[in-house]
Amino acid sequence: KSIVVLISGSGSNLQAIIDACAAGFIAGRISAVISNKTGVFGLQRAAEADIPAVVLDHKAYPDRQSYDAALLQSIDSFQPDLVVLAGFMRILTPEFVGHYQGRLLNIHPSLLPKYQGLHTHQRALDAGDTQHGCSVHFVTAELDGGPVVLQAKVPIFAGDDATEIAGRVHDQEHRIYPLVVRWFCQGRLQQQADKALLDGQIL
Length: 203
Ligand code: GRF
Description:
The chain is α/β, with parallel strands linked by helices. It contains 6 helices and 10 strands; from the N terminus they run βαβαβαβαβαββαβββ. It has one domain (2-111, 134-152, 173-202): Formyl transferase, N-terminal domain (Rossmann fold, 3-Layer(aba) Sandwich). Helix content is 34%, strand content 25%. 5-O-phosphono-beta-D-ribofuranosylamine is lined by residues 7, 9-14, 42, 86-87, 107-109, 134, 170, 173. It catalyses: N(1)-(5-phospho-beta-D-ribosyl)glycinamide + (6R)-10-formyltetrahydrofolate = N(2)-formyl-N(1)-(5-phospho-beta-D-ribosyl)glycinamide + (6S)-5,6,7,8-tetrahydrofolate + H(+).
């Protein structure tokens, strides 16, 4: 299977997926990494793994529609079976999301449906939660609202700060994202409207 990974930053989730492909855990290969930001560490990770890397700077486009149209064209030139958002910090248009429906995954650093949007670790802390985590989900037009495939929970301990919690969540992200991509590439995972199915069973 051909996988295209979109990033905006450090790309530690990208790395986890690169490693899982290299180890044969994922039956697929990353055909391209696309970043909306220049100079981010994830691009270096792609270069080190000999993966074609593209920078598509959103600031060079007048609006979201035109950026997403260019992004779509760039992605499709790699003929992906799956598009993986791995810390891609942009809201996508419904047209874009519709085009990739059923083959577009995201990872979000909260136990969805809690804390959609930004600053999830601080919000969990402020709410006095004792549990937090991350979710891999199919992307739909609703921001961070698509069907969840897999979640991992982490504890929040008294005295934790947001950085400590973020580290704990990240470790779990690197476990669950490759696993979900593995399932997808095995043909076991599907999206049906607002549901995720694993081996035909609703998750
Ligand atoms: C992760 O915390 C992910 O959940 C969020 O952005 C972060 C990306 O980290 N959407 P990295 O670039 O994969 O290191």
